[in-house]
Amino acid sequence: MASQDLLATVVGVEYKKKRFDKLAVRREKRGLANVELVLGNARLFVLQAPDGEFDQIFILFSDPWPKKRHAKHRLFQEPFVRELLRILKPGGRIYIAHDDPNYVEQIREVFQSLVASFVFHEEGVEFTTFYADKWKKEGRSIFSFSYEKIEDGDLGREFAGVPCAIPE
After folding, report:
1. How confident is the model at residue 51 (pLDDT cuts 50, 70, 90)?
2. Which candidate in 5, 51, 63, 152 is catalytic?
3. Do residues 27 and 66 share a domain?
4. Staple partner for 64: which of 57, 89, 103, 128, CB 3.0–4.6 Å?
């Protein structure tokens, strides 16, 4: 068995074309054959993913939409998290990192509403991203934590009706 066969498939979803193109160049330069890139909206990607498809999901520095009137655009809302739960395998984890303490609090509140389905883990993962490095240089705190799926359940498909307009 080739060592490539032992590698996990990594799927990266990026909404911004310029960032997507940079990722594609890096993937090619590093010869990362196990990395698939998707240019698109993570909300729509998640809706199309099969049940129990993922062992791990990493959501790093999603747009906080800091203005109150824009909060409806935030990625972490209960219907989206229910979809994450649907596509995550039992025992799988969702790893989250962010620098905005207000958004982190909202994320934790959303997961708290689904407490029967997740176990919170204070430890996240060590990672290096453009934004992690940028925020650290600016002296911002980085919050990194995870949630482990503990049960399967029929959570429905209510996410489809949630507004998810993202300006170009």
Report:
1. very high
2. 63
3. no
4. 103
